[in-house]
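Here is one record:
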Amino acid sequence: MASQRAVRGATSNPVSDRFGLSQREADGDWLDTRTAIDGEPPPLRTSVTVEHPRTIIARNASPDVPFDRSINPYRGCEHGCIYCFARPTHAFHDLSPGLDFETRLFAKPDAAALLRAELAKPGYVPRPIAFGTNTDPYQPIERDWRITRDCIKVLAETAHPLTITTKSDRILRDIDILAPMAERGLVAAMLSVTTLDREIAMTLEPRAAQPERRLRAIRELTAAGIPTFVSISPVIPAITDHEMEHILERAAEAGAHAAFFIPVRLPHEVAPLFRAWLDAHFPDRAGKVISIIQSLRGGRDNDPDFFTRMQGQGVWADLLRTRFHKACRKYGLEGQRVTLRTDLFRKPSGAQGELF
């Protein structure tokens, strides 16, 4: 395995033609620097483009996810997780699911205002809004843009329930809002911990919080009264699967309420990016990893079918489930999903109402 810290997750910037988009050349300067004279390429800088959507609440009817609406304050994610299933969404913008996904980001500064307007619509029925379903709401640019925090403020004001999934301890900066919401049964959090090995994390999720910081976040969120789960997602066979029991043990020690896991998924353009990552960092076992993944996915790189896409199938899937449930019983992580309250919701005040 490579010992140096990876600056980015993807090893290349391939252009997708899945949507019939025009091909564009890779950045010439990036390629030119990969010469014997210039040495290693310079760091790619992150750019942020302001996006002005007309709505901010996304709806879904998927039968195998526990929410029907979500908010993504950002598009693209600087964390650079090589396995991220959201990478292909960048192809809609004629951008690469590779390095573009990690470096050419979009921010939605109107999100809180749009959210307020949507919650105020006649007939709106509250259900938990999920954050962190497509890209991480606490990725590094949240430090300056604070769009996630602004949205949470609106939900706190209206007593609207929400869930948050993240790989960042930056969520701790919002405890001042989240803890009072938790007292009213309005929020639950989930920290994704895929590995405890810093060296693996440096290439697998190069700009996400280190594993120990995520465990600390679980501890502090729990201490603040916020129901907090741990997600071992994804489990990567022959790379991280051997850590499952240890991750669950450490999460239990930190006070996690319960745990979940999903075997790695490789939809669309994620598959070739992941293969290139394996070749770069784990060439000794790349073939074995892909072979096991395909056995989990019915002979394919990815299984898009509802339910089985989250669980996998076959002997390897059965083994992972058995190990997971046994460890959860051992460490007391068999808690049920938290039912968040919707009966406290009140529509946001209008401009006139806020004057009195």
User: Anything to note?
Assistant: The chain has one domain: 45-347.
